Amino acid sequence: MSGRQGGKLKPLKAAKKGAKDLSEEDLEFKKKQQEEAKKLKEAAAKAAGKGPMGGAGIKKSKMSSEVAAEDHAVETTQEEPQETPEEVAGEDSDPEPPMSKKQMKKMQKRERFLEHRKEKRKIEKERKKAKRQAMREAGIDVPKRKPCYSMASSSCKQAVAIDMGYSEYMNDKAISATIAQLAFSYSANRHSEAPMQFSIVSMTGAAKEAFERSETTKNWDAFERSETTKNWDVNITSDDVSTALPDKKVVYLTAESDNVLTDLDEKCVYVIGGIVDHNAHKGLSYRIAQEKGYDHARLPISEYIKLTTRKVLTINHVFEILLHYTQSRDWKEAFLSVIPERKGISVNGDQDNERKPDADNCKTEENDDCSNQEKSVEVKEEPIEVKEKSAEVKEESNAGMEN
């Protein structure tokens, strides 16, 4: 090593790829690029020859720059993939906001639930089948399914409709709850010996999408009945109630109305608002009824019973109350048979008679008063007994200490 050479030795540069090192695909691509560039140059030269050659002609420097720009455009088009019309349209439209972690978890949980739901239902069906078979082998009577009745053969011609035109006032969760309450109402009407003439109107938008997507109601096939679903007995339409039932007088049921519903008329259709809002849109059905010029009324709840909680009832509760009334013609009986005990229901004029299981079977009012007095006396005596016991315990403990 000579004294002149010092410092670090620079690494040798890698040899350039020769024509032999290129693959067949690289050679084809390079050849294609050269052919396209040649065609563009010929086209540019042809266009330049046809133009005017006077003072306003194309300069050589300008021509060369244009050709160079076209060559660069060809190279970029070969390297970058072309955008599809869908991508171009997506750029023009507003981009969707990114999902949060909570939303992503909910979506993933929903997807997992949908994947395993059919399998779970199949297992549950087989389990119930095996249970029924075991009951038959043991000689136990297997409970039969409730019979179903059709609206066409029903003696009740009372029309009741549920208006589903409230999608804009609900989120997805509330819409799903509304669809579930529709299913409960349908089941109650189907198993009644005298079902009402049940219609679901204004089924459009998000409510219709949720209805068709729901596992409970997707087989109803309400808009086009088929041979497999013709037994689903319900009238569903996207029209409003006045268009769907033009020969009926429309009466909206709303708690804000001053008109008390004393009886049902078969010439009228009674409309229940299909909304689950937890009282967020108070008086909405009342305002809609006034805007459209419909008659309105409220159920006679306060005339017959008292509720310790809110008087807000679910869609299926209101439907079942009307269904019971068509059979018994007794509002009090309809309320007591449908409204759940958690509402703290009691009959007017009978404050002590709340809907709770009775311990004593008393027949007269005098016996009821006596039993109530005895219960109150026992309650008063309980603290005295406790005090006496506690005094005895203290005496025993003191005697033990002395000994």
TrEMBL record:
Q: Which GO BP terms, alphabetically?
A: tRNA N1-guanine methylation
Q: Where is the composition biased (Acidic residues)?
A: 77-95
A Pfam family found in this protein is TMA7
Show the catalytic activity.
guanosine(9) in tRNA + S-adenosyl-L-methionine = N(1)-methylguanosine(9) in tRNA + S-adenosyl-L-homocysteine + H(+)
**Would you name any one GO CC term?**
nucleoplasm
Q: Where is the composition biased (Basic and acidic residues)?
A: 18-44, 352-365, 375-397
Q: Where is this region: Disordered?
A: 1-110, 119-138, 346-403
* Protein name from the UniProt record: Translation machinery-associated protein 7 homolog
What is the species of this protein?
Answer: Steinernema glaseri
